[in-house]
Amino acid sequence: MDHYTTRNFMLTESVGFRIVKARNLVVAEMDAALKDLDITGQQMGILLSLKQGVATTPFELSKLLGIDTGLMTRMLDKLETKGLLERSRDAEDRRVVNLHLTAKGLETAAQIPEVAPHVLNARLRKFTKAEFAELNRLLRKFTDD
After folding, report:
1. Residue 31 and residue 15: Cα distance in Å, rounded?
2. Where are the transmembrane segments (predicted)?
C-alpha cells in the first residue's frame, strides 16, 4: 500500500521529516547532557555497544548503529585520541580490528546510565506507558528490527 502520492506528499507532514526532526532533537539534547563526559550521543552508542559486548569490531558497530564505515573510522579515531578505546589486530585474522574499552572508557561508559535516561524521559514525558510501548513497537516495525 502506498501512503504517499505526488498529490498528498508534503515534506513537513512526511514520516521521514518527523523521524529526522525527532532524531535531531534527541541528538542535540543528548549531546548537551553528555558534554561533561566529553562525548557525543553517537560516541555514547559506541561506548555502550563495546561495554555490553554487542559489537567488538568497527564493522559490527557500523552495522548495529547504522553509521557508514568512513564516519565510524573517524569516530573511533576521536575516541582513541581521548583514551577511551584501543584497537588491536585479531590474532587469527589480521584483517580484523578488535576494539576494547580502556579503563577510562569503561569509567565513562559506566556514567552514561546516569545521564541518558533523563534526556529520553524528558522527551517522553507526555507519553503514557501504552503510547511508549506502541512507539517502540512501531519504530521496530519501521526499522525491520
Report:
1. 24
2. none
**Cell numbers that stand for 9 in this block:** 506528499
Return the closest-CA partner of residue 41 out of 64, 18, 75.
Answer: 75
Q: Which residue has the higher pLDDT, 104 or 143?
A: 104
When computed from its CA atoms, the radius of gyration of the chain, rounded to whole angstroms, is 18
pLDDT, tens only, 38-61: 999 999 999 999 999 999 999 999
Which grid coordinates belong to 43?
A: 560516541
C-alpha distance from residue 113 to each of 26, 37, 42, 49, 117 (Å): 16, 12, 15, 13, 6
- Yes or no: say if 85 and 100 are a contact pair by the CB < 8 Å rule: yes
141 is written with which cell numbers?
Answer: 516495525
Domains in the chain, CATH or no CATH each: 11-112 (1.10.10.10)
Q: Model confidence over 61-83: pLDDT tens digits? A: 999 999 999 999 999 999 999 99
